[in-house]
Amino acid sequence: MSKRIAVVILVWNNRKYLEEFLPSVIEYSSGLADIVIADNASSDDSITLLETNFPSVRIIRNKTNEGFTGGYNTALSQVNNEYFVLLNSDVRVTENWLQPLLELMDKDTNVGACQPKILSYHSPEYFEYAGAAGGFIDKYGYPFCRGRIFNSLEKDLHQYDDSRKIFWASGACMMIRSSVFRELNGFDANFFAHMEEIDLCWRMQLAGKQIYFCPDSKVYHVGGGSLHKSNPQKTYLNFRNNLLLIYKNSSPEKAKIILRMRFFLDALASFIFLFSGSFADFKAVWRARKDYKRLKSSYKPYFSKKEGNSFKEDLMLYPKSILWDYYICSRKIFSSLEYK
């Protein structure tokens, strides 16, 4: 009989991480959760490792590498637990990490998803880039976290140990109601990877659900396991997907204003890459903008489908520019922002 929770780890040639981190997932999760490995057509010996050393783990084999979005969509269509925990393969979980997440979700059915405190595996005293103590987004669509603004990481001094609403939960470790995931048709497969969890959480809020940070659960994330942060393909996906999520989830009037400003901000970013010696990143920004224009025609803005929805589209949005606060006003930590 299935447990209420399924911890689902999407992998692609991640043998090293499976060998290192899967034992802790099994040790600290199997009492409450089914452990599922969704393999995105790996060409290494990950499957052999799983079948030999971890026979209790369920394996779902995707026929092709569909990226983070398609890979999870395909795998989760075959998982029937009440809650999904989407967990990166390079995450070390801790004892009793699942119980606080489950209690938070059980307490309020309006909570569609939540995330734990995500700390750096290599520097455990610091928050980790991908999620930290919960994700947010500013008025121009730039994401940041409590504990991490751009590349400035804070030490965890228990300054963010309160459970609170956030804008997005990290794809590195997110608990989500399976019913909500299916109601929203899962991740947008066009995103492939990067910012797909922000898009999903934005759509979740438009559907009237809340996203929460749970400080009583703690995990440690290596980070950069798929694409290094300096990889031009990551630059491309981040810029393209960021524009898509603004277009999809903002009201048409707001999207027009934001995207007009983003043209100038993206142009500025591209020339900063160029003058820093990264011609590949410069090209990636403009390729992203070109492909965004091609892809956007296939969408009807999501917000327009929610006529009569009482949810305010700017709820949890940071009403200022995080670029201005960070680079001009030198506000490098979350607590220095004027954020209610």
**Count of alpha and pi helical runs:** 10
Describe the largest sheet. 9 strands, mixed
Order of helices and strands: EHEHEHEEHEEEEEEEHHEHHHEH
Low-confidence parts: 307-311
Oligomeric grouping of the chains? single chain
Give the C-alpha Rg.
19 Å
Net shape: globular
- Structural class, judged by helices and strands? alpha/beta
Give the averaged pLDDT, no decimals.
92
Strand-residue fraction?
15-25%
**Helical proportion, percent range:** 25-40%
Termini separation (Å)? 44 Å
DSSP, total strands = 14
Please describe the topology of this protein:
Blueprint: E1 5-11, H1 15-29, E2 33-39, H2 46-53, E3 58-61, H3 67-76, E4 83-87, E5 91-93, H4 98-107, E6 111-120, E7 135-138, E8 143-145, E9 148-149, E10 152-153, E11 164-166, E12 173-177, H5 178-183, H6 196-206, E13 210-221, H7 232-249, H8 252-275, H9 279-296, E14 317-318, H10 322-328
Parallel strand pairs: 1-2, 1-4, 2-3, 6-13, 7-14
Antiparallel strand pairs: 4-12, 5-13, 6-12, 7-8, 9-10, 11-13
Helix pairs in contact: 6-7, 7-8, 7-9, 8-9
